[in-house]
Design a protein that fits this description.
about 70 residues; alpha+beta; 2 helices; globular
Length: about 70
């Protein structure tokens, strides 16, 4: 179950599931609009788009620097 809420340039993402955590970020209104535009174009929610961007960033980092250990 995922809930997203925009309030005062914050995105509140709440995910209710074991092993999945919440993350709040500050984001400029124009950037948020563009994020939604890209996500809609890709057929995704903004939350899914952010998760994909984070995943891709981590994969690129690990490819260059090795796997990040999970504590």
């Amino acid at each position: 179950h995922i809930r997203c809420k925009l309030e005062r340039n914050y995105i509140y993402i709440e995910v209710i599931s074991m092993g999945i955590k919440n993350l709040s970020i500050r984001i400029d209104e124009a950037m948020l609009h563009k994020l939604h535009f890209v996500a809609d174009y890709e057929g995704r929610s903004a939350n899914s788009q952010v998760n994909i961007l984070i995943r891709d960033c981590i994969q690129k980092f690990e490819k260059e620097h090795g796997e990040i250990p999970i504590k």
